[in-house]
Design brief:
mainly beta, 8 strands, rod-shaped, 143 residues, 8-stranded antiparallel β-sheet
């Protein structure tokens, strides 16, 4: 029996998923006003194999082998408006990729599940100009 889908019970074992945005933002920016950009990088999920095995056992299955897919490619598309040299408002869409597991079980069968992690965000951006071409910034918002 194969089980796939984002609502599978055993996907509660997906722990913290992090996205390391490696690429420099592809920002289309002017000093003030509207801007847009994109990030791309590797994402990883921490999948607790022991919790998956315990969940399967509570359903009457024994896992003879378990493999998981804990790496993906994540990306973010964002845009915003910079009101002055110190304040901007930004929104975006992010997709951390697909993660999941597949378990061969006894009684004979395969159980598997996947999840896609994605969402929207809106952030207030604080900007601290350090030089004419270099600034530090911080984001505070909701996802």
């Amino acid at each position: 029996m194969q089980k796939r889908g984002p609502r599978a019970k055993t996907l509660g074992v997906l722990g913290v998923s992090t996205l390391a945005m490696i690429a420099t933002p592809l920002a289309l920016a002017s000093p003030l006003g509207w801007y847009a950009g994109a990030n791309i990088g590797q994402s990883r999920a921490k999948i607790a194999d022991s919790q998956i095995a315990n969940n399967l056992q509570s359903q009457g299955f024994t896992s003879s082998s378990l493999s998981n897919d804990s790496q993906g490619v994540g990306f973010k598309l964002f845009g915003g408006y910079q009101f002055n040299r110190n304040v901007a408002l930004e929104g975006g869409y992010f997709n951390l990729g697909d993660f999941g597991y597949s378990a061969t079980t006894v009684p004979t069968g395969t159980r598997s599940a996947t999840i896609m992690l994605q969402g929207l965000n809106i952030d207030a951006v604080g900007i601290l100009p350090i030089t004419h071409r270099f600034s530090a910034f911080g984001l505070l918002g909701v996802t």
